[in-house]
Structures are given as C-alpha cells and as structure tokens.
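Handout for the seminar on molecular recognition.
Each group receives one record of this type.
Step one: identify the two inputs.
Step two: read the structure output and locate the region that could contact iron/sulfur cluster.
Step three: write two sentences on what you found, then compare them with the reference statements printed after the record.
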Amino acid sequence: MFGIDVNLIKKYDKPGPRYTSYPTAPQFSESFTQNDFMDEIVRTNSGQDLPDLSLYYHLPFCDTLCYFCGCNMIVTHNRERIKKYVEYLKREIDLTSSHVAPGRETTQIHWGGGTPTHLDPDEITDLISHIKKRFDFKEDVEAGCEIDPRELTKDHLYALKSGGFNRISMGVQDFNEKVQKAVNRIQPEQMTRKVIGWVRELDFQSMNLDLIYGLPFQTSETFEKTIDSIIDISPDRIALFNFAFVPWMKKHMSLIRPEDMPPAEEKLIILKMAIEKLTGAG
Ligand code: SF4
C-alpha cells in the first residue's frame, strides 16, 4: 500500500503558489510589458527548427459564484459583455498569430476559465473556427476544454466535438450536499453522471474530474463516499486539489465560515485516505 508520511507533510505545510499555471503567479511582474511580450514572440519565431505550439484561451465568464473559486472569473448573464470579450479575443488572436512563424503547428490547445461553456454553442463554434484560421493544428492535437455540467447542454458538447476538442475537464469537488450548499455549488451526482455519459457517448478521448479537499463540512468519512463514487465513475484523469483559503485575496471566500472548515489534522487524514483509496483502485 502507498505510504503517506504525515510528519513529512506537516514539515512542508507552508503556503506556496498554485502550480496549476506556469509560470506560477509570483513570477508575473508589471515590468514585463505588452511590448516585451510582443518582442519575445517575434524573437522566438525567428530561426529554424521551431518547436510546436501550445495555446491557452481564457474564457472568464461564469453563471454563478462558487465560494471556493480561486480563478480569474466574472459572474455575468450579460450576453453582450461576453460577445464583446470574444470579439477582442479574436482581435488578439489575429495580432499574435501574425507574428508566429508559418509552419509552426499546434500540438496542444486548452480553453479554461471561468466556464468556457458559458459561451453558447454557436459562439464556441465561431471562436474555434477563428482560431483554426490563424493556427495550423497537428492531426493528433490534444484539445481540452473545461465544462460546467450545471448549465451544459448536449449541443455545447457537439460544438466542442465538431470543433476538434478531444479532452474534457469538469469540476466535481465533492458530491456531499451539505458541502455543496456551503460553497454555493449545487451539482448533484446524477447530473455529473449524466454529462459524463454524454462525453462518453460523443467519444471524447479523455475525461478529467477535479476534486477539492479541505472544503467546509468535509470529513474523511463523507469525502470517502465521494471518492467511492469517483472510482465507480472511473474517469481517465483525476486532479485532487487542496483548498487554498485566501479571503484576503479573494473576497468572496469570506462567505465561507472558517469554523466550518476541517482542521489541519483532518485535512491530512482526508488526503491520506484519498491517495490510498485512489492508488488502491489503480
Ligand atoms: S464555475 Fe469554476 S471558474 Fe466559475 S466560479 Fe465556479 S469554480 Fe470558479
């Protein structure tokens, strides 16, 4: 059985930058300007044997606010605002792609957010077509998109699939209802399973599920039930994140009461349980 050294984890239990983006946030500096960015693109697009491209697009809009959210996002139902953003994004794609050396191919593309599927299916089709006009995709490109099952229709998935996406990622966090209420993300297990059924029916190559431990009211016993369901669902990938409670950076996190959160010891037990169960399940 995979062993977890709790003392080692305690020793290194210090806040660090989120590793989900590279470079990590502390590396960003305002002294690196828009012009520096453009110069860098020009510099790295001259010469021979240029590497392939990975493209990331940020669609920051969401339908509702999850109190644990650490992303750069905006809750809006103003479709004009979304349209305007997409128009600016297309202009930026034009500007940037004009500096990319001809022949460089895209091997990876990812849409994150926010909720990229807060765009409607036609907007998804329009944006991916625009990107494809400006960048050449390799035949075996890895194309991933984050989705939110709470507002997703099958047409969104059709639009992604016909646009060439082959990887889907979805937040689950925890199936427990009390936890979901406390973080304002009501996403019943049945809803998640239904959408995963669609993803499989449409033959996307990979399905990732995100989980978070350290959320309010979580205990090792309750989270174990979520882990059991996840093992039963059997996604291709799982990301299990530690909840970073930073209300001084993200004001909306103050809507979570610190006294409802599991103490550090319990969090460690939850992590240990999750690693052991998931590892045990292969
Ligand atoms: S759907 Fe995702 S990006 Fe939007 S608020 Fe919730 S966690 Fe944040």
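Reference statements: Residues 207 and 234 are 9 Å apart (CA to CA). The chain is about 40% helix and 20% strand.
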